[in-house]
Records
---
Amino acid sequence: MHPFRYNRAQTVEDALQSFGKEPNAAFLAGGTSQLDLMKEDVLRPGALIDIKRVPLSAIMATKDGGLRLGANASNTAVAYHEQVQKRYVGLAEAILAGASPQIRNMASTGGNLLQRTRCPYYRDTTQACNKREPGTGCAALEGINRVHAVFGANEKCIATHPSDMCVALAALNAVVQVQKPKGGTRSIPFADFHRLPGDEPQRDTVLEPGELITSVDLPAFTGRSHYLKVRERASYAYALVSVAIALEMDGDTIKAARIALGSVAHKPWMATDAAKELVGKKPDAALFRAAAEKAFEDAKPLQHNAYKIPLGKNTLVRALMETSGLMPLQGTAGTAFASSAGGVAGDDIEG
Ligand code: SF4
């Protein structure tokens, strides 16, 4: 691990000022992912600005009937919050499908948004990786790419975003609240917060240097939401494919729908056109199958991940069936799936 300086901030202003004084600084919250990457020499910040004591842990109602999740609220606190359990079920399911109880106790809401990819080549400093070292190439392109993207990738990077929680937040139309380093705030719709690789695969989000996430706001929602995760074993593993659904009904007709797909792109992938196909119609297996076909019609498989397309379609159909009540919920722990593509040496699937 490279040497770094450590500053503990007590307030948002303190954190922003400390960040501005240090070259190559990074904020530290739960540290559940960041410290591992520092130990593995993947991340080398010159200074860590510890924000754990900054008072951003509250979960509170917003004026418009939504719920504000403080950036330092732990994943456990969010998943078991009464209002989340009652009104944002898909979010609770997504959080509880990820990691272990110990990690969820430490991991923060803001930190979850900033998780780095689980691409095994990103974490192996002997391999070329444009995300870790821009301009060095992408070892996954010609390597084993079974866990990589089928949407939005390019020759610079084919990695996927690893978070479960973010997929549910995208489906629930959350908004990320950010404090700017020189004063002022900005609000970023969740679907715009993470980036596709483009020419800067090293940038996962649209955050500018020194910007600090202060909360994630959930809008008022009275519909049904659900998260379904498919993984290689029944617990403590990253998704091969996941689906988050938010449905609002008018009697027995679908009034509004949002579908987000996980582990298929560099960001939670919104299946907007597929969701539109559902609006104004009654829940029906054939309708859901047509929406799933639509959702994956532009998917582009790599050498080893074509299985994600039928798997993703089937997961989406089942998630829609469960959300709409056409099929009973089969638990929130996710589904284990044995891929025929084999494992990746050194592949990290520990969730
Ligand atoms: Fe790096 Fe992205 Fe290529 Fe993985 S897919 S090796 S993260 S550039």
---
Amino acid sequence: MKTRITELCGIEYPIIQGGMAWAADHHLASAVSNAGGLGLIGAASAPEDVIRQQIREAKQMTDKPFGVNVMLMSPYADDVARVVVEEGVKVVTTGAGNPGKYLKMWQDAGIKVIPVCASVALARMMEKAGVDAVIAEGTESGGHIGYATTMTLVPQVADAVSIPVIAAGGIGDGRGMAAAFMLGAEAVQMGTRFCVANECITHQNYKDRIIKAKDIDSEVTGLTHGHPVRCLRNAMTKEYLRMEREGVPFEEMEKLTLGSLRSAVVDGDVKNGTVMAGQIAGLIKKQQSCREIIDEIMEEFTAKVS
Ligand code: TUI
């Protein structure tokens, strides 16, 4: 299947895996790329050595293109931005900020640059700055989120820019992908669905929590201080939201979340840890290989659009 995104990234299917913190390592990225999508290593807040090693491991596990997601709020963002150039990464996506200061370095290195934009204004600014495509990510996504929904953001971004648009947020199957294409997208990015993939290193408890999630199981914390994060409801979200209601100082709330994503993803503490997942978690009912996921989605998508 050909779209401007499959051409740009050199991939078979217009399906991109989200760069989820702690979950999207070289195992997942290479499995998605081997299945014909675009796998991403999520740099999150990891230091440069870890990311350099993961890029090298991924190169051993696939000869297909893969990318790195640079999380711009990371204290190591400058280092990771340089490492992707040094290691010859083909595609970089960015999240949680404006990647403007790295653009020239990446463009000079021939890297395809695809920032996540949670607003039309940022998408326009990024197109002017010369990026190759944008990811319009709706608030249905897991993790750090913007405010507009996928249904409203994708068509507005598609109207505002001429570069290709990738839709993200709330997409978990071929029906969601078909809907995104109807809104003007030329590819989709999915995180939560790939979090439960066999090849994903997330703890089994984390996968099981997503698989048993219901439609209304997600919460948004951090709205009171302007850094909203979507995750599944548990003892941690209840405590965090109580603190927000009671006006507890920000620093106090931050203590609660320090290391909490790691404890859920790596150690499997899905009660007191942060279980980042999108609103689509309720739709995801089984664990599969990345190839099964991508083949199933493409089959559903083709049936919908033909
Ligand atoms: O980045 C994400 N999702 C993430 S990053 C992450 S790591 C984290 N862990 C704990 C707390 C916070 C983060 C977990 N999930 N998605 C991409 C995304 N980017 N969503 C929204 C945005 C965004 C928001 C504001 C992009 C740009 C922006 O402003 C740009 C500007 O003008 O500064």
